[in-house]
Design a protein that fits this description.
The chain is an alpha/beta fold. The chain contains 37 helices and 34 strands. The strands form eight sheets. Strands 11-12-10-13-14-9-15 form a seven-stranded parallel β-sheet, covered by helices on one side. Strands 1-2-5-4-3-8 form a six-stranded antiparallel barrel. The longest helix is centred in the middle third of the chain and has 26 residues. Keywords: ATP-binding, Helicase, Hydrolase, Nucleotide-binding.
Length: about 1050
């Protein structure tokens, strides 16, 4: 028996790592496995539409999830150089370190500066997957730790008080060798410090939670709803329950029906809410209701009204969404509705709780949600539940002070004021003032943040009245010697219970009466820690909001009756398994639109296996009934007509508010800027931008020109305009953002938002400009052909939608874009870009600039006619020219380069730095330097053109260049500074290679430096013939004794 008890105790002490099986799979991959994109090719089966059992259901998602985890890790390797790296200050085996499996280590992280961590992450977080390395890696070969070529670790613990203290589970033992130690000398002693890094790769939190949900364990979870979605069963989303109808059990109370109608919803919205409210009390069967909300149909309003009524019915409901943004949106709308009906001080908000990662949610930017966010609520309540300074202690102190102030004075004056004499009146005044302030804060906090299940309305009302009484009470009321108070404190409770009120109706006695009643009414402990306060708030709230992933925290909380999933069509079905199995859940409501974007999947293999498919979409495929919201309130009818016909079979009606004449806005005078236009740009050129993404710089210029015209109109008319620019390609989004810059950020009335299609889902603006990018003779449009992506892009605008594209490219295939162009022509909404003179000029400038740029792209070393100097163009300079796309500015740049190549180096503007700066115009600067290249048997001076960039970015570039030039030898630096002049012109110099000593190693100037992302140029440029002869009578402006560096 003793041994059995010891085994049980040891199991309790063992650290539990959820999803350990998934972690073990990740740890089993070698580096070659990670880099092999086809590692699971042929091993991942397509997820079926129906399932014979819950076991088969869960099993079908396992391999696709492993492959998606593998793809995420592979993706992190591609950006390894930019990955945050955290230096280990100390590392030691943890108490539960037990080789070969339980390789736990306790690590103290060194505080790192922002430039070391290379990104927004300042600390490691729970379930971060890291690589343990000897140095901060810049390439995959650097992923070494001692003798191990690849060592992973999972962060399985973070100290709440000191987040620099973490616990990790390593894939292999971490061996501490001399190579891992850094030696430093201090005085006479020698100190060895650790040189290990934790390099952030991915966070596995969500995938671990999904994995755990897919493996419920032998005892099983709540599978009531899971078992209802395995087969094709129309009853899941069907009508009302027959037994409930026969017994009249599912009839919504009339007062709730009146409340619903007071929100002026349309009939489809009201019907959807009533069907959900009817189902929530059904105990005969488990149901899943589907609410289909196409763009602009008031889906969020419908959801918030549904939740408000569930709150009034005191139905414990969890509302989930796939993203933090979606959760914040629906929670914000609900809080706004609830706040309009609150009686005083926010009482009732305690029944609503929002929880999740504070940083990722960016809660500090959402003041409207402070009062319902769990972490803030717990911090506020914690001050109220302290044994000595909490609300109950202060209530008792106030009762004592009001009952017998002289007794309190004599008891406290010696103890608290160390014999220093205060008059009785001074003491009472100060004590009363402090207690009144403390109680006002604590009472306000309690009735704002405590759930109504723990604090009744009557008690909250007494707290509010007590605050009012204490505010008007004077010191004379406190020190007055009334017999009704003195010596009768012990009878206050008794008298109150018998008569309901003390005989004396004075403010002082009224206050005493309520304070005693409040004390007796609240049964909570005097002291509650933060962890218990979190449990208390989560267990007693009626409406809970979080992401589907974060709902895993509720498995140990009080049962939940109803689950609502917003944006359900964007949630992977395997991820919805997390909230669907929560204890107590009987019914679920899925709200979404499968015609819009699904969940994001990184792996092509997992995508083909349908890992990104939602439960909502699968149920629709199986024929489950949807409650359609059939009236849209966002788009002008000219905008809504095409997506309505193409994607929704003309099932959506335009609301009266968008059909009235006043809804039509004319922002610009030209005909092409009506409510709906396709603007044909046949001159565009698609090219690769960042990574493998495409961009079209001609469309970038057109977008910038249109936005500029809109800004001018907004300023002159002093009317607000919100503009959204959408492109399916990230490189195009980046190029437009760079082109527009921050010039419109200071205007309150004019806003511009440039995002990808995925980033705009759920958003809307007055005007939307779509840049389609594709412009080629093949008719290739890539993933632009995705109908869900197209639907999202076409349904974001309120008043105007202007689509930029190449007609020939978009119609040269059988995608939805051919129908769109044909529709625009049929409706007289098709326009050529040349119809607007300003756009025609803009295109002419940008195409000229492209022609000039294409001439330079294959030339790193160029010569101008009759030039003295050779000009070397860096990759970064060529990239920056692409972003300018303005022929006038490009001409100025090339004109200045020609001037430099002719020897006009502006000698009088020399600086201590090797590089120089020249302003091209008010907003752009050119950075250049004299550098050295090897040409046959000589080192030759050339002009290196580093960058042309906004003046605001010059300081950053200069710092990078300073670091670059630190690698040069003294001799090379002097040669870069060496200036020979002939009259007013500077001429290049050269030195024979053999004159250099062996130690004079001159680095290849074409090599990059990471800060400016200049690609490595491996080939040394070939010499070019001189085009002009320079007289050999030179005046040496500066003489350097190269052979004797000491001089």
């Amino acid at each position: 028996m003793q041994k059995l008890w010891e085994v049980k105790e040891n199991k309790k002490k063992e650290r539990i790592v959820k999803g350990k099986d998934l972690v073990d799979v990740v740890f089993s991959w070698s580096l070659l496995d990670v880099l092999n994109s086809n590692l699971y090719k042929g091993k991942v089966d397509k997820i079926p539409n129906t399932f014979p059992s819950s076991t088969e259901y869960f099993k079908s998602f396992v391999n696709p999830l492993v492959e998606e985890t593998h793809a995420a890790l592979l993706s992190s390797m591609e950006t390894l150089r930019r990955a945050p790296a955290f230096k280990f200050w100390e590392i030691k085996p943890a108490k539960d370190f037990k080789p070969p499996k339980s390789l736990y280590y306790e690590v103290t992280l060194q505080t790192m500066s922002d430039n070391i961590t290379n990104g927004e992450r300042k600390l490691l977080e729970f379930n971060d997957l890291i690589a343990v390395t000897d140095k901060k890696p810049t390439r995959i070969d650097d992923l070494r730790c001692s003798s191990e070529p690849y060592l992973l670790a999972l962060v399985c613990g973070v100290n709440e008080d000191n987040p620099h203290l973490i616990t990790i589970l390593a894939s292999k033992p971490i061996v501490f060798e001399d190579d891992n130690m850094e030696t430093t000398k201090k005085g006479k002693g020698v100190k060895k410090s650790l040189t290990l890094f934790g390099v952030y790769l991915i966070n596995m939190m969500t995938n671990i939670r999904i994995w755990t949900a897919l493996h419920p364990g032998p005892e099983g979870g709540n599978l009531k709803l899971i078992s209802r979605v395995l087969q094709s069963n129309n009853e899941v989303g069907g009508g009302s329950c027959v037994p409930c109808q026969e017994n009249g059990e599912n009839v919504v109370p009339h007062h709730l029906e009146r409340t619903i109608r007071s929100f002026k919803l349309n009939s489809s919205q009201e019907d959807a809410i009533l069907r959900c409210l009817e189902a929530k009390d059904c105990y005969h069967c488990n149901t899943i209701k589907l609410i289909w909300g196409p763009p602009g149909t008031g889906k969020t309003k419908t959801t918030s009204v549904l939740l408000l009524n569930l709150l009034k019915m005191k139905c414990r409901t969890l509302t989930c969404a796939p993203t933090n943004i979606a959760v914040l949106e629906v929670c914000s709308r609900l809080v706004k509705l609830v706040s309009e009906s609150l009686r005083f001080g926010g009482y009732g908000l305690g029944d609503i709780v929002l929880f999740g990662n504070k940083e990722r949610m960016k809660i500090e930017e959402r003041e409207d949600l402070f009062d319902v966010f769990l972490d803030y609520r717990v911090e506020e309540l914690y001050t109220c539940f302290q044994a000595v300074t909490g609300w109950r202690a202060n209530v008792n102190h106030m009762i004592s002070l009001l009952s017998d102030p002289k007794k309190v004075y004599h008891q406290s004056i010696e103890k608290e004021y160390h014999g220093k004499r205060f008059s009785f009146r001074q003491f009472v005044e100060e004590r009363f003032r402090k207690l009144r302030i403390d109680l006002h804060f604590q009472f306000s906090t309690l009735f704002l943040h405590l759930p109504t299940a723990l604090l009744s309305f009557q008690v909250a009302e007494k707290m509010n009245r007590t605050n009012d009484l204490l505010r008007v009470m004077t010191i004379s009321d406190v020190v007055a010697n009334r017999r009704s108070c003195h010596g009768r404190l012990k009878h206050v409770v008794k008298d109150f219970r018998k008569d309901g009120r003390l005989e004396n109706d004075s403010r002082k006695q009224d206050c005493l009466e309520m304070l005693v009643s409040i004390c007796n009414s609240i049964k909570l402990p005097d002291f509650i820690g933060m962890f218990d306060l979190k449990k208390l708030c989560l267990a007693n709230a009626y409406l809970l909001f979080c992401t589907a992933s974060s709902s895993a925290k509720l498995h140990m909380s009080s049962p939940i009756q109803l689950l609502v999933i917003d944006e359900a069509a964007q949630l992977k079905e395997c991820e919805s398994a997390i909230p669907l199995q929560l204890p107590g859940i009987q019914h679920a409501v899925l709200i979404g639109d499968e015609k819009q974007l699904p969940a994001m999947i990184q792996s092509k293999i997992a995508l083909e296996a349908d890992l990104g498919r939602s439960l909502f979409e699968r149920l629709v495929l199986l024929g489950h009934k949807e409650q359609l919201l059939n009236m849209q309130y966002r788009m002008h009818p000219s905008i809504s007509i095409f997506p309505n016909r193409e994607f929704y079979g003309m099932k959506i009606l335009d609301a009266h508010s968008v059909r009235v004449r006043s809804y039509e806005r004319k922002f610009l005078p030209e005909k092409m800027y009506g409510p709906y236009s396709f603007i044909n740009i046949p001159y565009g050129r698609e090219q690769f931008g960042q990574g493998y993404s495409l961009k079209n710089v001609v469309e970038v210029s057109v977008v910038a020109e249109i936005v500029s015209k809109l800004y001018s109109v907004s300023r002159k008319a002093r009317k607000p305009i919100s503009v959204g620019v959408i492109s399916p390609y990230k490189a195009q989004v980046f190029a437009i953002q760079e082109k527009i810059g921050e010039k419109y950020n200071t205007s309150e009335q004019f806003t511009v938002s440039v995002r990808s299609v995925d980033g705009f889902q759920g958003g809307e603006e007055d005007i939307i400009i779509i840049s389609t990018v594709r412009s080629n003779g093949k008719g290739a449009i890539g993933f632009l052909s995705n109908q869900q992506r197209t639907n999202v892009a076409l349904t974001r605008a309120r008043y105007c939608l202007w689509i930029l594209g190449n007609e020939a490219t978009l119609t040269n295939n059988k995608s939805v874009w051919r129908q769109l162009v044909d529709d625009a022509k049929a409706r007289d909404c098709f326009h050529d870009v040349d119809d607007d003179e300003s756009l025609a000029q803009c295109i002419e400038r940008s195409t000229t600039a492209l022609d000039d740029l294409s001439k330079l792209e294959n030339k790193k070393l160029i010569s101008f006619e009759n030039s003295i100097w050779k000009v070397w163009l860096s990759n970064e300079f060529l990239k920056s020219l692409e972003t300018i796309v303005d022929s006038e500015i490009n001409k100025r740049v090339m004109s200045y380069l020609e001037k430099l190549s002719n020897g006009e180096l502006n000698q009088e503007s020399e600086t201590e730095n090797l590089f120089r700066q020249h302003e091209i115009d008010d907003g752009l600067s050119l950075i250049w330097a004299i550098d050295i290249i090897k040409r046959e048997n000589h080192y030759v001076q050339v002009l290196k053109i580093w960058h042309v960039l906004p003046s605001s970015d010059v300081s950053r570039a200069e710092k990078c260049l300073e670091q670059h030039f630190k690698r040069y030898t003294k001799v090379k630096i002097e040669r870069c500074r060496y200036i020979c002049s002939q009259g007013n012109l500077a001429v290049p110099m050269r030195w024979p290679v053999k004159s250099c000593s062996q130690n004079d190693v001159i680095s290849d100037i074409s090599r990059s430096f990471a800060c400016l992302s200049v690609l490595e140029e491996t080939e040394t440029p070939k010499p070019i013939k001189k085009q002009s002869t320079v007289k050999k009578v030179w005046k040496i402006r500066r003489k350097v004794q190269l052979n004797n560096p000491k001089k």
